[in-house]
From TrEMBL:
Record's subcellular location: Cytoplasm
Signal sequence extent: none
Pfam family, one: PTSIIB_sorb
GO function terms (MF aspect): kinase activity; protein-N(PI)-phosphohistidine-sugar phosphotransferase activity
Predominant place of localization: cytoplasm
Cross-referenced InterPro entries: PTS_IIB_sorbose-sp, PTS_IIB_sorbose-sp_sf
Recorded superkingdom: Bacteria
Domain PTS EIIB type-4 as annotated: residue spans: 1-169
PROSITE patterns on file: PTS_EIIB_TYPE_4
Keywords for this protein: Cytoplasm, Kinase, Phosphotransferase system, Sugar transport, Transferase, Transport
Protein name from the UniProt record: PTS family porter, mannose fructose-specific component IIB
GO CC terms, sorted: cytoplasm
């Protein structure tokens, strides 16, 4: 038995109002696992993130490797988890580490714009490196990767959108 993951979400903002209200109401987790090597090393950021968790849901901030270990540790089998990473690379590392997202796929809430990126939705910025990571999640791990800000929004197939926008994924 392993930890139950109810939502695996990439959101460069990590835990914020939309996640704390809409998504927790929708997936009903008892635990929010924020998975970020940088946030796990930043005590102030960890404190701020854990304070945003809605009532009745505990939040933890852990490194990618610690999340992989926890997923396979029977002590955490009671977790009904909303899992958040701030980038596609960390989610890919979790999949490579053996975390099974096949039943739920990967939800992308936002990828923050940086230099030399292109906005492909109003909340998702893309470059060739990230496009290739998404392609790996789809092709190698057979995952559905969709953009969706809140549960009421229509899901957008990200690999299809990336290909339509002309990103080099091969």
């Amino acid at each position: 038995m392993t930890m139950e993951i109810r939502l695996a979400r990439i959101d460069s903002r990590l835990l914020h109002g939309q996640v704390a209200t809409f998504w927790t109401r929708f997936v009903k987790p008892n635990r929010i696992m924020v998975v970020s090597d940088t946030a796990a090393k930043d005590d102030l950021r960890k404190t701020l993130i854990t304070q945003v968790a809605p009532p009745g849901v505990r939040a933890n901030v852990v490194s990618v490797n610690k999340m992989i270990r926890a997923y396979f540790d029977s002590r955490f089998d009671s977790f009904k988890t909303l899992l958040l990473t701030e980038n596609v690379g960390d989610m890919l590392r979790l999949a490579e580490g053996g975390i099974d997202f096949s039943q739920i796929g990967i939800n992308v809430g936002s990828i923050a714009y940086e230099d030399e990126m292109t906005m492909i939705t109003d909340a998702v910025a893309m470059n060739d490196r990230i496009a290739k990571q998404i392609q790996t999640l789809v092709n190698d791990f057979h995952l559905e990767v969709t953009a969706q800000k809140i549960p009421a929004d229509k899901k957008i197939d990200l690999l299809n959108l990336i290909q339509k926008k002309g990103f080099k994924v091969n």
